[in-house]
Amino acid sequence: MKIKKFVAPTLKEATEIMKRELGEEAIILGTRRIKQPGIFGFLKPELIEIVGAVEDEKIFKHKSNGEDIPGNTVDLLKKMSKDIEARRKNSSEEIDAEPFEKYDYSEIKSEIEEVKQALNQITEHLKYKSSIQYPAALRKAFVNLIEKEVEEGLANKIARAVLTNLSGDELRNEKRVEEEIIKIISELVKFSKPVKPVRRKTFVLAFVGPTGVGKTTTVAKLAAIYRLFENAKVALISADTYRIAAIEQLQTFANIANIPMDVAYTSEDMARLVRKHQDKDIILIDTVGRNQRQSEHIFELAKFIKSADPDEVHLVLSATSSYKNMIDVYNRFKVLVPNRLLFSKVDEAICLGYILNMAYKTKLPLSYITTGQNVPDDIAVAEPKVIANLIYKEVLL
Length: 397
Ligand SMILES: Nc1nc2c(ncn2[C@@H]2O[C@H](COP(=O)(O)OP(=O)(O)O)[C@@H](O)[C@H]2O)c(=O)[nH]1
Ligand SMILES: [Mg+2]
Prior knowledge:
Blueprint: E1 2-8, H1 11-22, E2 27-34, E3 47-54, H2 73-89, H3 105-127, H4 136-147, H5 152-165, H6 168-171, H7 174-188, E4 203-208, H8 215-229, E5 234-240, H9 248-257, E6 261-264, H10 267-276, E7 282-288, H11 295-308, E8 312-318, H12 323-333, E9 340-344, H13 353-362, E10 366-370, E11 379-381, H14 384-393
Helix pairs in contact: 4-5, 5-7, 7-14, 8-9, 10-11, 12-13
Bound molecules: guanosine-5'-diphosphate and magnesium ion (MG).
């Protein structure tokens, strides 16, 4: 800080001199009247002395339009405090123009912390505002559902059903509330039973969905289970709409498991191959595609599926994808008229609530969930209790 005295007949003139010397930023720290120097000074009019000051480095930078740039407030406050401290130490300076109190930053910091906490609480409260209407145990369960990303409308539907079904005493019992929630979830979502080989009929099951979700792995798991555990006659057909021959994976498996496998390159192939395997109990159709984003591919695939005339079309969704993505996939694959939802990679998923949202939204029954890469172990029938427990408690029964 630069400090200087200026003397002039009037305050206005003294100020003008100060501004000329110290610049427009200069401020007046003090003023006083003084006698003119010399022996006859007392005869002359008094003069005005002002003490002007200017910051060496301005704390606030100014834009040309004079608007303050706030910068980092905490940094500015810190700098201000440093300047004041430096001036205070300089005791030889006669002008005591201490305009600021000393700031206690630790106090400011803890206050900011408190404000932050309060904001968090408000956010939580707003997010779960509809939970206020529920008694404590149910509220906890409701918040749990919301945290699993179950849609609020659906979570409220579940919670309200619990409220209707249980007595006041039961509502205070956390375990009882949990049980009821699982029961209600299993009533709100549809579930399909796996086909049972019956010998008189050939069941045709097709698996569709984006590349990489786990269709081929799932087909291999089911083929192995039907063949090994149910002693069923199984055939595999790979629908290769783009002739990209991405079939080695399934072919290798088919060879090892001793299951016949064919590739359909056209919808005519598909019809012929399904007819060819009419002696089987189960025909599993895997689908291969290059770019599932292309709607032509889906339309092409639709022809294949149509000529296979399947009993079940399972739309395979990866449980690891976002809800938005799942909806997008569902909308694109709708033309294939899927009648089952199959969730893969449940073992890697974070938000299992999406399973519930999708099943509820599409009204399609859930068929299976897959829980890893091991053939045939990592697959489970989507039974109500399994799914409800998975979503609600994140445990695989
Ligand atoms: N973690 C996990 N990985 C899986 C699961 N199912 C399949 N995968 C893996 O996902 C990848 C793609 O699977 P694939 O069956 O080829 O998908 P497709 O393109 O739909 O046929 C492979 O590495 C699989 O091993 C699952 O349930 N969990
Ligand atoms: Mg595949």
